[in-house]
């Protein structure tokens, strides 16, 4: 299981990469594995929208289920990965790369999120 050490994590199985006040957010390798083949990704926000921490911002639909996506941090939507509209399976093949979901500008430093080690412990895996 891939749990990059340079990212932060949520209890909802999302990852956050913070760079210069911009948080890139996606779902973890564990989450995509549990969901199975992802067939549709829908964002309920647009560029420029404000998002609150822990508020739903979209959904991921897999063959088995539909799962909501929750913003781990508050901020302003900078961009949405529109490539997922035509290629939702990218979330399965590259959850920490091209499978990212949304980018927000934020003042939050992510200190309230889990480290890779804490996330690995939560899901019962080794980082």
UniProtKB/TrEMBL annotation:
Superkingdom classification of source: Bacteria
Lipoyl-binding domain: residues covered: 22-105
Cofactor(s) annotated in UniProt: (R)-lipoate
A Gene Ontology biological process term: protein lipoylation
GO CC annotations on file: cytosol; glycine cleavage complex
Quaternary assembly: The glycine cleavage system is composed of four proteins: P, T, L and H.
UniProt modified residues of type N6-lipoyllysine: 64
UniProt cross-references to InterPro entries, sorted A to Z: 2-oxoA_DH_lipoyl-BS, Biotin_lipoyl, EF_Hand_1_Ca_BS, GCV_H, GCV_H/Fam206, GCV_H_sub, Single_hybrid_motif
Chain's gene name: gcvH
Family under the similarity heading: Belongs to the GcvH family.
Cofactor: how bound: Binds 1 lipoyl cofactor covalently.
UniProt protein name: Glycine cleavage system H protein
Function: The glycine cleavage system catalyzes the degradation of glycine. The H protein shuttles the methylamine group of glycine from the P protein to the T protein.
Keywords associated with the record: Lipoyl
Biological source species: Rubricoccus marinus
């Amino acid at each position: 299981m891939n749990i990059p050490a340079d990212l932060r994590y949520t209890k909802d199985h999302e990852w956050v990469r913070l760079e210069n006040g911009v948080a890139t957010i996606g779902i973890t390798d564990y989450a995509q594995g549990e969901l199975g083949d992802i067939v549709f990704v829908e964002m309920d926000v647009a560029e420029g929208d404000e998002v609150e921490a822990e508020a739903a911002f979209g959904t991921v639909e897999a063959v088995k289920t539909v799962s909501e996506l929750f913003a781990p941090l508050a901020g302003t939507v900078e961009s949405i990965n529109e490539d997922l509209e035509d290629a939702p399976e990218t979330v399965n093949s590259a959850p920490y790369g091209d499978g990212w979901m949304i980018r927000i500008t934020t003042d939050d430093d992510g200190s309230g999120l889990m480290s890779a080690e804490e996330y690995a412990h939560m899901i019962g895996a080794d980082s």
